[in-house]
Amino acid sequence: MRPSAVRLLNILVPVKRAVDYGVKIRVNPQQTGIDLNVKHSMNPFDEIAVEEAVRIRERLKDSVKSIKAVTIGPPKSIETLRTALAMGADSSIHVEIPEGSPSPEPLAVAKTLQALIKKQEGGVDIVILGKQSIDDDLGMTGQMLAGLLGWSQATFASKVDIDVAKKEVLVTREIDGGGEEIRCSLPLIITTDLRLNEPRYASLPNIMKAKKKPVEKLTPADLGMDYTPLYETLKVTEPPQRVGGGKVENVDELITKLKDAGIAAV
């Protein structure tokens, strides 16, 4: 039997609706950003985060009390939450912003998550989120959230082992040239790397069940948040077209061409 002193874990998983990774990105005609009138899906690193939360519950059996997904986005972001619920999350929160609004910047997202965590009955023990989103590739939110809360953090996680009794987590994280093991105390922020797991496909029965799971609707004002951007994007352009290479007959011709291009010393 589980000792009564051991607290059940509550896991929060932030997820983001992003342009699908299979879409070829194009700049919009106004050059203010990319064309968003394309297929969207859950940010792949966030899929890994949801999968890991579900696997933690499967490994620890009845030591996990709840898995809650949260997203900040327009009305269509509800589909991203439904995917998380179909994968195994128990409930979700949708902080809804108007359609066409720019995505909140990482600091605003971190402050929103901080406010949500403070509002959760029973508290939050672990936050698992993707190390970055594939649209802006900033990779800041997890670290900022840990700083705001004063919690332990383990970024770029490729393996997670939790000792519920000791309230400790052993995380293997990706670093240049290998892996690093760090031991963290709860509560904890974890950001996921690609090697952590392979997300499951949501089955049709679970997709149907997800429609009945609770989704709490909030607005930024409910949390005292202001998503006015702190920086302005002046212009977005596509990179210049790559020019094809050419062949040379011998080394002397190569050196001549390099000199003409100003690459080789005369």
TrEMBL record:
Example GO BP: amino acid catabolic process
Annotated ranges, domain Electron transfer flavoprotein alpha/beta-subunit N-terminal: 31-227
Keyword terms, alphabetized: Electron transport, Mitochondrion, Transport
Subcellular location: Mitochondrion matrix
Family annotation (SMART domains): ETF
Cofactor comment text: Binds 1 AMP per subunit. Binds 1 FAD per dimer.
Pfam families linked to this entry: ETF
Cofactor: AMP; FAD
Source species, domain of life: Eukaryota
Gene Ontology MF, one: electron transfer activity
GO annotations of cellular component type: mitochondrial matrix
Quaternary state and interactors: Heterodimer of an alpha and a beta subunit.
Physiological role: The electron transfer flavoprotein serves as a specific electron acceptor for several dehydrogenases, including five acyl-CoA dehydrogenases, glutaryl-CoA and sarcosine dehydrogenase. It transfers the electrons to the main mitochondrial respiratory chain via ETF-ubiquinone oxidoreductase (ETF dehydrogenase).
Family: Belongs to the ETF beta-subunit/FixA family.
Name the record gives this protein: Probable electron transfer flavoprotein subunit beta
